[in-house]
Structure formats: C-alpha cells, structure tokens
Amino acid sequence: MDSLTQIVLGAAVAEAALGKKIGNRAMLWGAIGGTIPDLDVLTGFWMNDLQRIEAHRGISHSLLFGILFPLLMAWLVKRLYDSNFYRRPGYKLLVTILSVIFVSSILFAINFIWYKAADHVQIIVLSISVILLILFVRWIWLKYYKDELRPVQASFKQWYWLFFLSIITHPILDCFTTYGTQLYLPFSRQRIAWNNISVLDPFYTVPFIICLIVALILAQGSRRRRIWNTIGLVISCSYMALTFVHKYKVDTEMVAQLKAQHIDYVSTFSSPTIVNNRLWHCVALTAGDTCYQAFYSLKDTRPNWLFTPVVRHQNLWDPNNQTNEHQVLRWFSQGYDAMVQEGDSIKWQDLRFASIDTKDLEKPFWVFSFDIIKEGDRTEVKESAPSFEGFGESWKRFMTRQAGL
Fold this sequence. Notes:
The chain is an alpha+beta fold. The chain contains 11 helices and 8 strands. The chain is globular, with a radius of gyration of 24 Å.
C-alpha cells in the first residue's frame, strides 16, 4: 500500500497496544514503525532499475525482519525514555516541528487524492484540511510543547509489542496488493500477492485517517479515544474483507464469460484498478502468444464482457537465451508480461498493471514498463518514463467505466 496508509495503520495498532499507557507517543512511534520497511527504497540510489525491482519489498518486508528488528527499536527507545532526554525543550521543539510536518503531509496526500475532482469538492476538502491543520498546531503547541510531559514508564516487552505490531502489519498489508511481498525471505523469494486491493485506495485510507485524528485529539486513556481508534481498525478490516468478496465475484464472472465466449485459457488474473475497488482489470493467458484483457465494473450494465486480444510477442526475447534480466522480469510479473518492438529496443510490460485508458488496451501500458536495449552481448534494462499523454480524457473514461457505463 501507499506510505500514508502504512503510517496510519502503524499508528493505529500502536495506539491499541500502548496508547492507554503512553498516550500520543504510541501513535508517533507506531507511525515510525509503519514507515521503517519502506526505507528499503533508499538502497535504490546504489542500484540499477532492475536491481531495485528485486530489492523493494524484500528483506525489510519479511516476517523475519518483522520479528527481529523490533528488538533493536524497543531497546533504543526504552533507553531514550529512561534517560529523560525527551523532556528537554530542544527535543520537544523538534518533535513539535516533525509532528506538524507529518500531519501536513497526511492532509496534502488527502488533497492530492481529490485533485481531479470537481472544483467545489477540491475547495471543500482543502478548507477542511486547513481547519484541521490549524487545530492540530494549536493543540500540539499547548498540550505538548507548553505542557509538562508525563514520565514514560513502559517495559521493554511493551515497547517490543508496539514495534512488532507496527512493523509486521506493513508487509502483511502489502500482500493484499498486486506488487507482491517477499514475505518469506531469506528462505524463499516467492512474492505473495493476493491482488484484492489497489496500492492506493482512498475508501480504505480516508475513513481510517479521520478516526485516527479524532482519537489523537481525545484525552489519553479515555474510553472515547479507544472507541474511535477501534472504529478505524474495524472499518479498515471490514473494507478489506469486502474486497475479497468483490474479487471472488469478479473471478467467477470472468471464468463464466471466457467459457461463454469460447476462449481457451491456461491461467487468469484480476486486480482492482487504481483508487477504487469497483473497476477491475482482468487478464487471461492462452497456450499461444495471445492474451485477452478486459475491464469489468461491479456496476456493469453490459451483459457480455468485451475481451481484447493482445499479442504478447514472446519471440522478441529469445526463449533459448534466458538472461538474468529476463528471469528477473518474468519472476516479478509472475509470467503475465508482453513485449513490443520500438525502434532498436524492446518495451517490456507487466500485464498485471493496467493503464487507466479503458478504451485502447492494445497500446503499451505506462505502468511498470521497461526498455530492453541490446548492444552486442550486453543487455541493458531501463524503466520507462510514464506517459501522461491524453491523461485528462483517459481519466474521464476511467471514471465513467467505474460506474459500469
């Protein structure tokens, strides 16, 4: 999932674990714990594009990391609070500034999600965000920076439990998306991907954020605070369960439509499109060099699916010369890939990640595309820059198709 959602989930589970005892500090450290696994992106500065694919959602997203790394975090944070360093004015000022930046980032992300909405909706969302930010700044200044902080008395076991929950829930949440997570490293490189929710889904994240912000403002240890945090967790878990119901419906309908249209297939794939769980992208691989793709909305008014045949051009990459680059890309895409010739290079595409253009499925996708450039015996793989040509019109068709039209 996106980093914002991971931060919110980490803060919520940490609040449930230790919020009654240490107050808002639990949310703060939970948010940090929920961010830690994604810091693997920093290693990308020393890697090429192909290596970054292998490294992201790697060892830092494994169950082993989620069990062992909280030991270090619990030891460090307990030492910090045992030293009373956290009560010094300079430290409090730093935390105040970082907290304002953190909340501002959340509100910015919410506004970014709605930036393509109607003007009056954007104004409403922006106005609410500004009011919330002003209220938060006032609250943290009076209740944290100016106030005398209570001493923190939490055991190593309690700190470990907080960091274990906030870190381990990160890779588990990522398993629900299409990108996949190497959950069993270093024992297995298998990517776990359940393909039931988009990597960015405001219907999962926004209610969660609202409940967490309300809980953040309420008094430490209060019953209402626990209730609001629990409501956020229940809503998010319920929505996640609903996405599995949607996926079952889509998969069942896809198989029925393939049989009804006499399309022979060897495997199928389905996943929700970006920022929603209503419109799904479906792929059926055949025994030959052709795949069939379709968009299906849970609100569809069409009696029959429109499957678009797409040639995968597997012959562009010599099947008898399986280079490391080819193996990595096939491993990442789980075999759902296609290629097209573009001048002297080959564009490789991951069929699992659809373009938002629901009209022309035969043109190259702009999500997870790579240019394969051959120079003699040397093969170079570079990630293609996203193409946003005609984005506005494509987005309108995308939103219309969500409604089943």
